[in-house]
Amino acid sequence: MKKLMNSPSTYVDDSLSGLTFAYPDLVRAGKTGRTIVRRAGVRKGKVGIVTGGGSGHLPLFCGYVGPGLLDACAVGNVFEGPTLQSCLDAIDMADAGAGVLLLYGNYGGDRMNFDMASKMTRVEQVRTVLGIDDIASAGPHERHKRRGVAGITLAFKTAGAAAEGGAPLEEVTRIAQKTIERTHSIGLAWAGCRLPSADEPLVDISDGDVELGIGIHGEPGIWRRPMAPVDALVGEMVERILEDRLPESDGNKVVLMVNNLGATPVDELFIAYRRAHEVLTTNDISIVRSFVGSFATSMEMAGMSISVCFIDDEIEPLFSAPTCSPFWSIQ
Amino acid sequence: MKKLMNSPSTYVDDSLSGLTFAYPDLVRAGKTGRTIVRRAGVRKGKVGIVTGGGSGHLPLFCGYVGPGLLDACAVGNVFEGPTLQSCLDAIDMADAGAGVLLLYGNYGGDRMNFDMASKMTRVEQVRTVLGIDDIASAGPHERHKRRGVAGITLAFKTAGAAAEGGAPLEEVTRIAQKTIERTHSIGLAWAGCRLPSADEPLVDISDGDVELGIGIHGEPGIWRRPMAPVDALVGEMVERILEDRLPESDGNKVVLMVNNLGATPVDELFIAYRRAHEVLTTNDISIVRSFVGSFATSMEMAGMSISVCFIDDEIEPLFSAPTCSPFWSIQ
């Protein structure tokens, strides 16, 4: 498991330099160098949206900075939360007088520094919504304990569209919260990733096995078994999502994301998509929009995740609003 | 090296089903089932553009069917050329009365069936342009022998924009040819991929090694050596591209693509991008547009390729023309 890098100590900064070099019209580094912000700044009076998290997950997190999506991102070391200074910088850069929403995954390190930054910042109005879409990380009665995975990008999309459209902070916050609550994700992996400074994989999944419910840092999943046909694996993933849905709010129209956790061939993402589509359709669920590709990765982890967002008439059009970021462009 | 599939025999068809299920507004299967065509059909009087090739390379080839890009794609088995019938079907579906351009990679199997199809088809005007951008596959005096790799997608973009804009067949053909001639690619890999029906990797690159110039089916490259820092590796790749450029036509403005051959972490693509940007800029070359991501893969091959297209005032605006396909959306 070799790495394309100069050294572990330059991994993150070299990658961020590449990102800003590649998309100079869209993004630039913020004050700390570990912040990515919109090149054009934030339109006066628009609610700012900030995310942040560890490196090693691109396009999460800083790949979603741009019109119709996010305004600033605080970037940590690989699989580590961003520093307090990066969080403060990101909040500051996203502020255009209408308040700032912090929208990031439910991880201890991220929470600690973002919470402190939200108290210390000079920005008066700051709200927080946490990504908690990973259904494998806690049961239905402990949803607040769940981790955030690829499904958070769907909340970037809806909240970003609402903010771009001029919605006030409370409204953008509500849209983000609603999207998160209606989004259910689960992962599957058959080989772990390696930290730049390590010699061995972070998680060792033996030759013939696959693990259901693994997290994007290799957090333990629900079970580990011999590799099985995709129809069985994806069938179980979608069934678990359907069991997790909220009958009082989730309807029967969804946005479906099949996300590459890293090293999965694109052809195989579509093989997985086919089965997810089949199971949802058999359950009388209508898929109104699909996203297939790399949205939230774990470096070279071989695996994929499925996210289902049960939409309603309010959030459906937000998925069609135009966006332009390094990794997500919708016309 | 596990595969997310039901069986080797259903690998391609399951993947194509997934693609058409995921993007029903954009694409559908053609007559043979091994053809992907635009959902909306081809506008009457527009030049049709057809590509094709083996599976296992998504987004190549069928991921680029859509407005501003291609009209039809003939799909073969994994790493095998499409059948004659698929080629005939694709040409037929792409025809809207203004002729059809065949734009595909320079591989024996693809050429055989496309050449035969271009003679057998009822479509009167058919032209062919071959992707020959892989500088590692033959020397500068044998450019016609080179293989086509990720750089062909840049010709999809320019020829697709020209055709969408109403250019006649000779013009679309000339634009494709010009883009191909000005595009130079080279690959690098540190782990091979596995065919769905095989137990072992197609190419075995030992633990500590990296191979420069490897092809997208694992064709042998220029050298195999111990893994080195990215700045040295990417530095050599870009230097080789600069040595290969045509002084009489290539200028100093380029489109730069850093392409994931499969299993490379996205963070590392940007680490590679940073160095490519540095070497080009040091050589007084201006990068006017960048593409970083998965454009032409080799299933789970761990590696990346660099493509540089030396643009001129004619083809530069074609890169900015809007497109919408399953894998490439430009606003």
Topology of helices and strands:
The structure is a homodimer of 331-residue chains.
Chain A: H1 11-22, E1 27-29, E2 35-38, E3 48-55, E4 72-78, H2 84-94, E5 100-105, H3 108-120, E6 126-131, H4 152-164, H5 169-181, E7 183-191, E8 209-212, E9 223-226, H6 230-244, E10 253-260, H7 266-282, E11 286-293, E12 302-310, H8 316-320, E13 323-324, E14 329-330
Parallel strand pairs in A: 3-4, 3-5, 5-6, 10-11
Antiparallel strand pairs in A: 1-2, 2-4, 7-8, 7-12, 8-9, 10-12, 13-14
Helix pairs in contact in A: 2-3, 4-5, 6-7
GO biological process, one term (chains A, B): glycerol catabolic process
Domain DhaK (chains A, B): 7-328
Protein name (chains A, B): Dihydroxyacetone kinase DhaK subunit
Classified by CATH, the class of the largest domain in chain A is Alpha Beta
Described by the principal axes of the CA atoms, the overall outline of chain A is globular
Cα-based radius of gyration of chain A, to the nearest Å: 19 Å
Major pleated sheet of chain A: 6 strands, mixed
Number of domains of chain A: 2
GO molecular function (chains A, B): glycerone kinase activity
InterPro entries (chains A, B): DhaK_dom, Dihydroxyacetone_Kinase
Organism (chains A, B): Rhizobium tibeticum
Domain DhaK (chains A, B): 7-328
